[in-house]
Specification:
177 residues, alpha+beta, 3-stranded antiparallel beta sheet, 7 strands, globular
Length: 177
Amino acid sequence: MMEADRRHGIYCFGVLRAALGLCAMPGDDELPGECVRLFVSWHLVTDGARRLRGCIGTFEPQPLAQGLRAYAIRSACHDRRFPPICAAELERLECTVSLLTPMEVCADWLDWDLGVHGVHVCLEGGASATFLPEIAPAQGWTKAETIERVIRKAGWTAPITDTLLRHATLQRHGDVR
């Protein structure tokens, strides 16, 4: 499986600059044609502190260049948690590309490893949410806190009960960044 490298983030910056009307769309001749699952994350760096500005991706394999183009723009301009990134932020922006391993259904709510696996929860009714592998350790969360937060991220506002957990599906994935 291909690993994410610096070229992928540079390509995403070129795509974002083009979307903002600052340059032409970059060529993708040097990017492999391999199909991948990916997420593109943008962080604003201020005084050494990193703040998330957008993170969107897909678990459906697609050609690398196509996925980077689509998700560089979606994560920068269409992450509903944030206003669109503007040209004035470019100098302080970092881009991270995560290439993901296939999803595996967890045997139970603890069948994943902090810092190794990301988690994806699917609730009854179709709501879902994901945390990439680095999120829980970066936030200092335990497994239980991570599960609670990913369920809340999926939009669940009621108490988290055994019934909810029995009817929800937890999947894990790795990151080959």
